[in-house]
Amino acid sequence: MHLNKLNLIGIFMMLFAILLFFTNFLDSTILTLTYPFLEGSSEGKSVILFMVTGSLLLFYPLFNEKGVIAKKISSIDSLKFNKQKYLKYTIIIVLITYLFGILLEIWIRTKFGVSLFTIFVSINHSATSTSIVHSHVMKSVLGYFVSSSGVYVPSHINTGSSLAQYVTPVAFITIIAFPLVYISGIISLNGRRDLHKAILAFALTTSLIGMLDGGIFSAPALVGLSGLLGVYVIKTPFSPRYLIKPGAVIIILIIIRVSIGLIGTNADFHEITVLNPSDNIEISSYEVLSMEKEGSKLIIKVPANINDKDLLLQLISDLRGKSDGFFLSWNLFSWNPF
Predict the structure, then answer these.
(1) CA–CA gap between residue 211 and residue 46 (Å, rounded)
(2) How far, in Å, CA of 48 to CA of 201, rounded?
(3) What is the DSSP letter of 268?
(4) DSSP 8-state secondary structure symbol assigned to residue 131
(5) Which of 53, 98, 165, 245 has the CB geometry, 3.0–4.6 Å to 216, for a possible disulfide?
(6) Which residue stretches of the chain are H helix?
(7) What would the 3-class secondary structure string for 152-218 be?
């Protein structure tokens, strides 16, 4: 295969991803640079960003319409090569996955009889949080497979596997979405200008990251969806008006995210719902307004003036090994943990 400049950039990005994974001297710098669009607390998302984007830029010629792979795919009439059609497939699969993630978040809270406007934290083994506006349910499925396969993952990278027990086996269905997005996305790169290929590769990767970690309201998802929709509607010659509809979609999603945060805010008190609590739970770290036992749940109310982030971290410390997990109401004006 003849290597063009995009292929060479792809190779460099993949090698850089390997360097990030096995070293730590660049971690703080990379986290600072990528946080605005990845929201990463470790270098895990950065590694995925460089590795997946690099692989898309390196391997897309294999899916050229005249290539062996594309010819086999196109032998099925409904799958004949068309860059716009495959980009549309990609966008549809991404959106369905995001919707399915929200439904799983709703299902978890409905199953335990708690408000939709809560953060759920599973504290079996490693602590993993999830909420409707920043979901980790898809991440937990991948984390489960990674943990089960024995693949080495640095201890400071949270795979989210502790959540898997609450969403499996239903969520396993979504595993097929990730390779489908990658394959349909890489096919859609062909026949485009180099700039559009680079934008698409980046947008596909951030979309995959958003599918795994954050959900539709997360920064990676919004950035990825912006790129996918932007390239889909753009035409030659370029006109800014082509970007009005994609821009409107992103603005609406941002408004919905903020609205959910505001609607769900409880500024009167924090409500903590502890699942399967032990008899020796100590909560002396903060004032308790009330405590009530409901079946296998312990419902605790504490003052709203306690910082959300501090309370969340303190609860993880206090309840680890003494419960299966807990739900926590949020106060957007105190701290937004999503």
Answers:
(1) 15
(2) 12
(3) S
(4) B
(5) 98
(6) 5-22, 27-38, 44-59, 68-74, 83-112, 137-149, 164-167, 177-188, 194-212, 219-233, 244-263, 308-319
(7) CCCCCCCCCHHHHHHHCCHHHHHHHHHHHHHHHHHHHCCCCCHHHHHHHHHHHHHHHHHHHCECCCC
> CA geometry: angle at 5 spanning 220 and 198, to 5°?
20
> How many CB atoms are closer than 10 A to CB 213?
27
Phi, psi (degrees; rounded to nearest 5) at 80: -55, 145
Please check whether residue 118 is in contact with residue 235, taking contact to mean a CB–CB distance below 8 angstroms. no
Cα separation, 29 vs 19, whole angstroms: 14
* Amino acid, single-letter form, for residue 138: M
Contact between 81 and 74 (Cβ < 8 Å): yes
Total count of residues recorded for the chain: 338
Instruction: Classify 322 as helix, strand or coil.
Output: coil
Question: What backbone phi and psi angles, to 5 degrees, belong to 217?
Answer: -95, 5
Q: Which helix (H) or strand (E) holds 325?
A: strand 325-329
In angstroms, rounded to a whole number, what is the distance separating the alpha carbons of residues 61 and 186?
9
Burial class of 110 by CB neighbour count within 10 A (0 to 12, 13 to 18, 19+)? exposed
**Number of Cα atoms under 13 Å in the Cβ half of residue 337:** 25
Q: Which residue is associated with the tokens 């989210």? A: 160
CB 25 within 8 A of CB 214: no
pLDDT in tens, 166-197: 887 777 777 889 999 999 999 999 889 999 99
Q: Residue 206 above 90 pLDDT? A: yes
Q: Of 264, 272, 287, give the one whose Cα is nearest residue 334.
A: 264
- Long-range CB pairs of 149-154 (<8 Å, 24+ gap) are 154/21, 154/42
Mean pLDDT over 201-207 rounds to 98
Q: Which helix (H) or strand (E) holds 274?
A: strand 269-275
The conformation of residue 77, written as its DSSP 8-state character, comes to: G
**pTM exceeding 0.85:** yes
Structure tokens at 8: 């060479």
- Predicted confidence (pLDDT) per residue in 39-57, tens digit: 877 788 999 999 999 999 9
